[in-house]
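Protocol step 4 of 6.
Sequence for Dual specificity protein phosphatase CDC14A (Callorhinchus milii) entered exactly as in the expression construct, tag removed. Do not edit the line below.
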Amino acid sequence: SASSSGRLRARLRIHHRLYFAILRQKPKNTANTHYFSIDDELVYENFYADFGPLNLAMIHRYCCKINKKLKSFSLARKKIVHYTSCDQKKQANAAVLIGSFSVIYLKKTPEEAYRLLVGGNNTYQPFRDASFGTCTYNLTVLDCLCAVSKALQYEFFDFNTFDVDEYEHYERAENGDFNWIIPRKFLAFSGPHPKSKIENGYPLHAPEAYFQYFRKHTITTIIRLNKKMYDAKRFTDARFEHYDLFFVDGSTPNDAIVKKFLNISENAEGVIAIHCKAGLGRTGTLIACYIMKHYKLTAAEAIAWIRICRPGSVIGPQQHFLEEKQASMWAQGDLFRAKLKEQQNGKDKVGVTRILSGVDDISINDNKTNDKPENHMYNDDHYPNKNEMTQGDKLRALKSKRQARAATTGSIKLEENKIHTRSSSQAVSRIILESSAQSAKTSLKPSAVPGVGLTGSTKRTTRSMAANSSLRSHPLNPRLASSLGNLHALTSDKDAAQTSDANSGARAQSYSVTQLNNSNVINNNSHSSSRRRAADNGTSVSPYAVRNLSHSHPVSANLSSRSVSHFESIQNHI
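Step 5 output, structure tokens:
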């Protein structure tokens, strides 16, 4: 409804005292109403023309903010109005936030939450992919709310235990650039490089940089989708399984790759870490196939959830590919669960191996033909010219530059050419990569480096825009600091936060040199460390790592029970 002053375009009641409003002007609080906006606090960092949805950390921070206001004694008798501007992109992101709160905390269905948001004939601009060209696929606010609802149903996240500091720390390029898509199942990360170094301003990490974190989180399997930038033996010598499922950057996988990926995922001993060049397009596409098959999310819901977890994922033709694959993935999932149910009821004594082999026999009719021989599937010769920047190169460079700019200048310029200021407490961090906890102790004495620890400076600055905001950065807790493994952060001294932007730029240059010098520790010791560990254990390659992807690989007997228990939880929900 419109107000007499013309300032109020629409106000929608969400729940009791909670309202959502679209306003033309900034309102003033009254005796009965408290207004607040997150338009300049929770800001999406775009790659190109993409503008949302906001990530999981922002949804969490928003929900905490709403809960705090609703429980506030001083606001107990007031209406709480979340208002947004007439900017359609801000409206869409704000709608996803308050809609997600309705789904998670008010226990509304996605459709109920969405109906409240579109009252008064409101419409919201659909989200788009992180590409430069014309948008060919629309992702709606309702798609995002459905994704949050399904993710909540299948326990992909739990805000009672969600660690927002850890999420924001590890998504930064210098801290590993990875995100959990499905906890205890899939982690998506940016592709490792032969050596830890800084290239064109982007921190590159050697495989050894991830070992300690991966082991702590029971990651046993690595799947590489891009061309070979590092020797797979770096992982297999360290007792990780490693598989290559190459397809060209920005393209879609053929049937054989999808089938192999699902087979590996359904038989993995532990958690799976997947990467391509940037860990966005190809990585998100294959994870979405698994989600559609085993959780029966729609293609749009799978894309929405993966982007909420890891913004920028699934790009261009990959979106349409998933729409085409949805029916076949659902059919395969139905057959898988039917056979699993028969086995659990004692009607089929053969076990999981037969279940999986039955699923493998399904033909996937996507009307696509692969005109390249099977042995070319992982051949780097079909990759674009090495001197050309691929889609993954460009996306990774954009992510690094915007994070570095935010950390060194305290601001980031978005496509609307608006400057969003950062908290001045967010100083530049220096990163030291180490090959193991032991090498960390011997190569870098704590007493030799003042100020060892973690602060909010190591976090990705995609949230609080105002220094005095209730959402401003806080130091990382000791538990997170102890979990960093090989991706340790050294913060600048306290005075560094008070220096000028010019000095911040100089610090950034010093930071790069320091990080590059310290990365020599992991580069020089990586091969000798892995060989020594292998020798101590009497083997050089994991028994699981010798599987040849050109042949079938059935489920090992000792994995059957794990496979059954993993899919039992899914069966209970579907």
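Step 6, annotate. The two ends are 41 Å apart (CA to CA).
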